Amino acid sequence: MTSERPPRNDRNPPAGAHAPGPAPTRIEPEFGRWNELRFDRRERPQRPPGPQPWFGWGAAGAVMLVLLALVLLRQPLSDRLWPNSRLQQLRSDAAQALREGRLSSADGRGARQLYEAALALDPDRDEARAGLTQVGQAALAQAERAIAQRRYADAHAALTLAAELAVPRAQAEALERRLRAREAADAGLDQLLAQAASARAAGHLDDGESAALPLYQRVLALQPERVEALEGREDTLADLLQQARQALAHGDLLAGAARIRRVQAADPGHSELPDALTDLARRADAGRGEAERALRRGRLPEAAAGYRDLLTALPEDAAAQRGLSAVATAYAQRSERLAADFRFDEAAAALREADAIAPGTAAVSEARQHLERARQSRKRLGGELPVAQRQQRLRRLLEEAAAAEARGELLAPPGDSAYDKLRAAQAIAPQDPKVRAAAGRLLPAARRCFEDELRGNRLSRAGECLDARRALEGEGAALGDARRRLAQRWIAVGDERLGAGELRAAQSALDAARRLDPGAPGLDDFARRVRAAAPGAN
């Protein structure tokens, strides 16, 4: 038995111990220098980043989108990549629709629509044309069956389709004659003619389905050459025209125009229609004249009603349209004048009338702004001061107005004249007796000022005097006449400037005249000439 080799021991034996022999040298483990030990974590090599989870989801989403696009666009892509297959499919679907009797369909799946689509894809091939011919013949067959079964509406629809597909005219006309004959037999045309004659005798010319004119037209739709129906319709239309002329003679433009339009729709070549149209034009001219006179005299509700009646009877009447616009402008100007007199409720009412006729126009917008400025002006002038302060300010303004009047400064200098002081007093208390008395004293001076400036052809200054006169005396026939005279003078000046080629000056004169009196005689004619002379008018 072999004994193990004793382990090496480098330690010295204790004292007194017997050493069997020389022992090998033992080496104790050493840790080295502690201050040179490094405890840093050893850096590991960087691994490349692995795929992010969202990348996989994104790729899957993209694949799904591509698949969805292929599903949705498979037919357009197929048509573009393989047009022959699309063409064959259309012809096949059209033939199937023809066999099933679906000759035409609003959804595009009828035989006609499918053959037309195939023809559009390949106009050089005759298969689609031949198919359309077959559809036309099938429509004739359907019409014939519908006539036999008394489905007259279906028969008319089938014949219309056949005519649109250019079937032989002889075939279509033969079926149309058969259809009318069957309808006439079933409808009892003799009875319809008797009903129409009775309705005409009772005066029921065109007031419902059982009136004379609709009944005669039903008969003629079935038998266009039926003599009794032709003569009855002619007489009925003559009666309608007689009623129209009587209505026009009594000033009823709306009723007269309505009956004349009905006759025009039924028979544009009626022998008595030209005379009735002449009467209508004459009555319309008279209506325009009445509306224009009402406008010139300031009777704006009457003018607006007249122009509206004209437009109801004759919707394309340009003169009536211009007249109604002039009424709106006149209402807007009235609102401005009332606002200048601080009569705000009346000004707002006039503005509403203008806005109802011509909303959003420049004149209406200006009047609205003028009303707002007038309200702000009254606040600044003390219209909302306490009673004691308002009375004190009113007395001071009247004293200053009287002093300016004594100096002869009636309308000038601006801001310090008697008129300007009085205007400030009117802003505070327009109905005060002392204010009205002061206005009465200044009115003759304002009238003289207007006449002097108008006589000297100083039209802008005459307009200022007219404004003063309006503020002092208010609206009335005399002021309306003065406004019309000044407007006509502006028209005359504008006509001279237009003749001299000064288009801008002519336009300014036109604007001034229109602001003064939209219904002034000659204004419309002058406006047309200014428009014609404008660049680009032709």
General description of the model:
The chain has 538 residues and is mostly helical. Among the domains are: 80-186; 191-267, no CATH class; 298-381, no CATH class. It has 23 helices and no strands. The termini are far apart. Residues 1-11 and 13-21 have low confidence and may be disordered.
What's this entry about, in short?
The protein has 538 residues and is mainly alpha-helical. It has helices at 53-72, 74-81, 83-100, 111-121, 127-148, 152-164, 169-187, 189-201, 212-222, 227-249, 253-266, 273-296, 300-313, 318-340, 344-357, 362-381, 387-406, 418-428, 433-455, 459-473, 477-499, 503-516, 523-533.
Which helices and strands, and how do they pair?
Layout: H1 53-72, H2 74-81, H3 83-100, H4 111-121, H5 127-148, H6 152-164, H7 169-187, H8 189-201, H9 212-222, H10 227-249, H11 253-266, H12 273-296, H13 300-313, H14 318-340, H15 344-357, H16 362-381, H17 387-406, H18 418-428, H19 433-455, H20 459-473, H21 477-499, H22 503-516, H23 523-533
List SSEs in N-to-C order. HHHHHHHHHHHHHHHHHHHHHHH
Proportion of helical residues? over 70%
Low-confidence stretches: 1-11, 13-21
Residue fraction in strands: under 5%
Question: Would you tell me the overall average pLDDT?
Answer: 79
Task: Kindly provide the radius of gyration, computed on alpha-carbon positions and rounded to a whole number of angstroms.
Answer: 50 Å
Give a count of the beta strands, DSSP E runs of length 2 or more.
Answer: 0
Task: Please report the distance between the alpha carbons of the first and last residues.
Answer: 139 Å
Number of helices: 23
The helix/strand class is: mainly alpha
